[in-house]
Each structure stands twice: as structure tokens, then as C-alpha cells.
Write a structure and sequence with these properties.
Layout (H helix, E strand, L loop, with lengths): L1 H23 L6 H8 L10 E7 L4 H14 L3 E6 L3 H10 L4 E4 L5 H5 L2 E16 L6 E2 L1 H8 L17 E5 L4 H10 L9 E3 L2 H9 L4 E6 H4 L5 E3 L1 E2 L6 H5 L6 E9 L6 H10 L5 H6 L3 E2 L3
Parallel strand pairs: 1-2, 1-3, 5-10, 6-7, 6-8
Antiparallel strand pairs: 3-11, 4-8, 4-9, 4-11, 4-12
Length: about 290
């Protein structure tokens, strides 16, 4: 009997040991779930911040279209535009008061030497405009130069009705003025009856004076019926003639930045977008000619 009890006790102890070992080797059911959760990739941070642009009034439609679409695509970014003129925009880029300066003329050698970089975003024709009722339809570059320097003073000398020509132009430092004077050979020699600080101002002045002549960005003149842009040397100012170079009076639209200085993430993203082929249709719709392929 004692032997039988000892055998039963031994078997019971063996069974308990086996059960304990089994419980020690169990694996928790949610182990794999915990590991996978630890390896998840965090969501990408959305672009945010502000981008300040400053300069050319002629670039208003282009920069406005680009800014609007960029902000729609990047709701955390605000792009501002201050229409101060090309000279002021270049200075703003130089002194850091703007992220990106806007110029409707190429940078001068001394500006590049002073630490600035110009990147052409589009081309623009400078339309020569007269009053909508003027009989003048075409002028040569030479005639335009003589009109603005006072050598030709009456419209009858170039096929119009008799009347003293009134020349309307932009202020010193304007990219439109710089481009116009460089091409027509009238640098620092124009005799202006009115010197205005915006493209819109020039258009209004010419529209209100039957004997006036002025110049303005192609993008600003399109669709206006109060003024008429004359052909220059028989070539109309259009996107096509500007791009192929047949229209003589044209200039670049330039984004100005400080050489070697890193832009903020938002400003760099806007710069990259503006100079990409993705923006070409917007630039065309704004009346300028994109250069990105």
C-alpha cells in the first residue's frame, strides 16, 4: 500500500512540473501587433510659413496667378506681393526685406557683383501704346526713339492727324522704362510730359489723352479697348512674337535672390514652383511667355 501511494504521489508531482513548463513557454497573442505599431512611419509635415515678394508692377498678373495657385496647393503658406517697382524689388532682395525680389529687367553687372542672382521666369513684350482713336498703326524702333527724345513732335510726321505728341513714361528705376529705353536707344534722354509710377497709370494717361503715346507690359495691355498697341517695324506685340524674338521691344521677368543664401523652405518651394514647367500655363494665362520647358 505504501508503495502504491508513493507511486501516485510521484506521478502527481511529475504532472505538475510538466504543466508549469508549458505555461512558461506561451507567447502573448498580441506581441506581433505591438512590434508592427512601433515601426509605423510618421505622417509627412505640411509646408508652412510666409513668402514675401517685392518689386515690378508689370509682374503683378504673373506673380498673382502663381501665388494664388501655390497657396491653394499649400494651405499653410502665405505669399505676399508688394508692387514697388523693379529697382525697389532688387534692393529688397539685397537688404533681406523680401525673400524674392521681382524685376522686369535683367540684373546689371554691378548688381550681380554685389551678391544678387537673377532667374528668368518669363519674357514680356513692352507694348507701345497710343490712344484708341489714334490713326497711327505702325512705328519703327527709330521713330519711337525720336518721338520720346523730342526729335519728332507732331503726329502728322508719322502718319497721324496733326497734333503735338505727348510722351508718357515710367519713373526712374522702373524695369519697364529700363527695357524700353535700352532697346529704343533713349537711355536718360526721354522727354516725358508725365512720369508715372505704375503700368496702370501709364495706360490710364494714354487712354485719357488723344495725342499721347506710352509703353506698358503686354500682359497689362491685353484686353484693353481704351488704348491701342501699335506694331513695331510691322510686328505686333504677342506671346508668339516675343518668344520667337521677332518683336523688338521685349524684356525678361526676373526672380531676384541673394547669391549663396538659403531661402526658407516655403520660399524655396515657391521659387521652384514658379520656375517649373508646371507653372507655364498660369504664366501664359497671365499674358507673359514662360521659359521653362
Amino acid at each position: 500500500m505504501k508503495k502504491t501511494l508513493a507511486l501516485i504521489l510521484t506521478l502527481a508531482l511529475s504532472l505538475a512540473a510538466l504543466t508549469g513548463c508549458g505555461s512558461k513557454t506561451e507567447t502573448p497573442a498580441d506581441t506581433n501587433t505591438d512590434n508592427s505599431a512601433q515601426t509605423e512611419t510618421p505622417a509627412e509635415t505640411a509646408l508652412s510659413g510666409s513668402v514675401s515678394t517685392n518689386g515690378s508692377t508689370s509682374m503683378e498678373k504673373v506673380i498673382g496667378a502663381l501665388s494664388e495657385q501655390f497657396m491653394a496647393d499649400n494651405s499653410g503658406v502665405t505669399v505676399t506681393y508688394d508692387p514697388t517697382g523693379s529697382g525697389a524689388g532688387i534692393e529688397a532682395a539685397s537688404n533681406g526685406s523680401a525673400d524674392i525680389g521681382l524685376s522686369s529687367r535683367a540684373l546689371k553687372d554691378e548688381e550681380v557683383a554685389g551678391g544678387l542672382t537673377g532667374t528668368i521666369v518669363a519674357l514680356d513684350g513692352v507694348a507701345v501704346i497710343v490712344n484708341a482713336d489714334s490713326k497711327v498703326e505702325n512705328l519703327t524702333v527709330e521713330q519711337i526713339g525720336k518721338i520720346f527724345t523730342g526729335e519728332i513732335t507732331d503726329w502728322s510726321e508719322v502718319g497721324g492727324d496733326a497734333g503735338t505728341i505727348s510722351c508718357i513714361g515710367r519713373e526712374a528705376g522702373s524695369g519697364t522704362r529700363d527695357g524700353f529705353e535700352s532697346i529704343t536707344g533713349t537711355k536718360d534722354a526721354c522727354k516725358l510730359d508725365q512720369e508715372l509710377t505704375s503700368t496702370g497709370g501709364v495706360i490710364e494717361a494714354v487712354a485719357g489723352n488723344p495725342n499721347a503715346i506710352g509703353y506698358a507690359s503686354l500682359s497689362a495691355v491685353e484686353g484693353k479697348n481704351t488704348v491701342k498697341d501699335v506694331t513695331v517695324g510691322g510686328v505686333a506685340c504677342t506671346e508668339e512674337t516675343v518668344l520667337n524674338g521677332s518683336y523688338a521691344i521685349q524684356r525678361p521677368f526676373v526672380l531676384v535672390t541673394k547669391t549663396g543664401e538659403t531661402l526658407s523652405s516655403a520660399a524655396q518651394a515657391f521659387f521652384d514652383y514658379a520656375t517649373s514647367s508646371t507653372a507655364s500655363q498660369l504664366i501664359k494665362a497671365a499674358g507673359a511667355v514662360p521659359v521653362a520647358k
